[in-house]
Design brief:
By secondary structure, the protein is mainly α. The protein contains 3 helices and no strands.
């Protein structure tokens, strides 16, 4: 009887752990967002070092666009996680 109780407790803990896992789609979005944010940071650094003001402004605008895209991906990942947690 004791062994059955232990097995049931272990199965319950495993199923609870599975519910808390990060959905693969959210993990992929997080990784892509992090990559885009790194690119945006690199672009901003390039803009800061540009000698030509017009080129610097263009690069800075592009960096802002990429950073905005990264933020949108983060929001999408959060939404996926919220929906996954509501499903369990």
């Amino acid at each position: 009887m004791k062994k059955i109780a232990i097995v049931l407790a272990a199965a319950t803990l495993v199923s609870l752990a599975a519910c808390k896992q990060n959905p693969p789609a959210a993990a992929n979005l997080d990784a892509t967002a992090a990559n885009l944010q790194d690119q945006a940071d690199a672009m901003a650094a390039t803009a800061d070092n540009a000698a030509n003001a017009a080129a610097a402004n263009a690069m800075d605008a592009a960096a802002n666009t990429v950073g905005t895209a990264a933020n949108k991906l983060d929001s999408a990942a959060d939404k996926i996680r919220a929906e996954a947690s509501n499903a369990h």
